[in-house]
From TrEMBL:
Signal sequence range: none
Residue intervals of the Rieske domain: 20-125
Source organism of the structure: Brevundimonas lenta
Keywords noted in UniProt: 2Fe-2S, Iron, Iron-sulfur, Metal-binding
InterPro entries: Rieske_2Fe-2S, Rieske_2Fe-2S_sf
Biological classification of the source: Bacteria, Pseudomonadati, Pseudomonadota, Alphaproteobacteria, Caulobacterales
Name of the protein: Nitrite reductase/ring-hydroxylating ferredoxin subunit
Single GO term (MF): metal ion binding
PROSITE patterns the UniProt entry points to: RIESKE (PS51296)
């Protein structure tokens, strides 16, 4: 059997095709967040969706500081009070619905948006 490559060696992509169903709106608490990995051909897209104040926003799972994926624990992208997105590695914080970095080592930078839309109770790529 062929060996699977380590995740770090897998080809990454930074965008997704539109209209891919991700989950039900009710699958993500408000406030809350969830990780998604989409396989597109032989490549992988890593992103996450935040639910905050009844709205959803998606981002590429890559911190603008050093390029790490943000969450140390699966699906835990928010600060404990649910008010901000947190990069668990060096403490950068981001506004949940805009991705603007408001504190930490990359203040003034911004998460890369991943377009998603909630339609009919389902969150899909947009
Ligand atoms: S990689 Fe996110 S704060 Fe350093």
């Amino acid at each position: 059997m062929a060996e699977q490559p380590e995740p770090a060696e897998r080809k990454r992509v930074w965008t997704t095709p539109p209209n891919v169903p991700l989950c039900a709106e009710t699958d993500i608490a408000d406030p809350g967040s969830r990780s998604f990995v989409l396989q597109i051909g032989e490549a992988f897209f890593h992103g996450f969706v935040v639910h905050k104040d009844g709205q959803f926003a998606g981002y590429v799972d890559r911190c603008p500081h050093q390029g790490y994926p943000l969450a140390i624990e699966l699906d835990r992208y928010l600060t404990p009070d649910g008010s901000l997105i947190l990069c668990g590695w060096h403490g950068a914080v981001f506004e949940p619905l805009t991705g603007d970095c408001t504190g930490g080592p990359c203040a003034g930078a911004r998460l890369t948006p991943w377009p998603v839309a909630a339609v009919g109770g389902i969150i899909r790529t947009a």
